[in-house]
Amino acid sequence: MRLAAVLLCFPTVGLLGQEPLETKLVIEKGGREIGREEFTLRGGRAQGAPGSSLTALARYPATSPTLKLSATLDRTAEGALSKFQLEVDGPTGTTIILAAGSGARLIIRTVAKGSEAGRELPGGPDVVLLDDQVFSLYCAVADLATPAGKPLTAVFPRTNRRASFVARRESGGGGNSRVTLTGDISGTLVTDAQGRLFRLELAEAGTVVSRAKD
Fold first, then answer.
1. What's the average model confidence in pLDDT over 152-181?
2. Which ranges in 78-193 belong to alpha helices (H)?
3. Less CB within 10 Å around the terminal CB: N or C of the chain?
């Protein structure tokens, strides 16, 4: 299978030791800071291909973290998934999750110490890859949102969760864009003029993600 071959070619070198990224976020739950995230969102992909590339690193807690997550999300100029890599470094070891999509298929490969597994899921242009602890991935949701409301399906590769929701773009101020989320994922997200996550509120989870002031 071509997609399986693509997944096998993905590098599995971690991002956990990389240099600091340009945008920093504070992650709070129930009014208490639980972690920090930093990310870079750039136009274009590897080898000059059109689209966008997001690189993120999250730490829980921010100081002396016991859990680190790094993610890469590349999307085409049309917003379709080009490459996804998530590395999770926790008390039980390191797990790497890779994903690629084409048409109506989404193939996910999970690699951990002593084990490897793959699975195929329904994909398509209305599917976004998210994670419960890497929130800059919501930038892709903001890109796909429409004033009329865009029905989307979120796939959480680490937990196998799927969520159906609607992303409705509202008017913003100061160059920011505001998106309301309803359905299995409910809340609001705000991005700046460059499409970078500025603030995210997930009401049911009690999670608030905002730009760091320091």
1. 91
2. 139-144
3. C
